[in-house]
Amino acid sequence: MSADLIYPPPRVLPAEALRISQEAPRVLQTSPNGSLPYPLSLLASTETQEAWLTHENLILSCLRTGDDKSAKLCLDRLLARFGESNERVMALVGMYEEAVAENDQALEKILQNYEELIHRDPTNLPIRKRRIALLKSMAKTSDAISALTELLDFSPIDAEAWAELSELYFSQMAYQQAIFSLEEVLLIMPNAWNVSVHVAEV
Fold this sequence. Notes:
- The protein is mainly α.
- Among the domains are: 1-84, no CATH class; 156-202, Tetratricopeptide repeat domain (Serine Threonine Protein Phosphatase 5, Tetratricopeptide repeat), CATH 1.25.40.
- Helices cover 74% and strands 0% of the residues.
- It has 13 helices and no strands.
- α2 (14-21) crosses α5 (49-65), α10 (141-154) packs antiparallel against α11 (159-171) and α11 (159-171) runs antiparallel to α12.
- The longest helix is centred in the first third of the chain and has 17 residues, at 49-65.
- It starts with a helix and ends with a helix.
């Protein structure tokens, strides 16, 4: 199995994403499509963690390259294995729905669904992050900033969220808030020299 399918590089170029997504038929043919429910699966199955990481990474590459059919097959297997209540699977379902949404009304419906899920479980960070990504893609920057600050109330040591908040503040010309957010990143990751440079630039 390709290492890129299990541990893809942080920035996958379009050509690489296409190559990875083209491996979907082979992976789907050779991987298990049925599984015992947890915890029985731990005792009587030959499945590996890498198999499910592969499915997750395939979904991302397939959605990126427009292979919605293969993405749905991978997603169905993850749903069958981990269930609808698994937070990571919920986020992947949301990502799939966003990718196949045909208009803004469909995206608004997905956004409303995210808000209902967050209302039921405020600590569901994967869904909070999907909601933020969707708000950003819909150009609702002020709502995305509010959603990010709410997320950071639950997870104040999320350096990635602080960095994203800084970018949003910067885009709104709120430079003091942008600098403050970057300083929070430095408190969490003091050796991040690139963040120090970015603070100086801001």
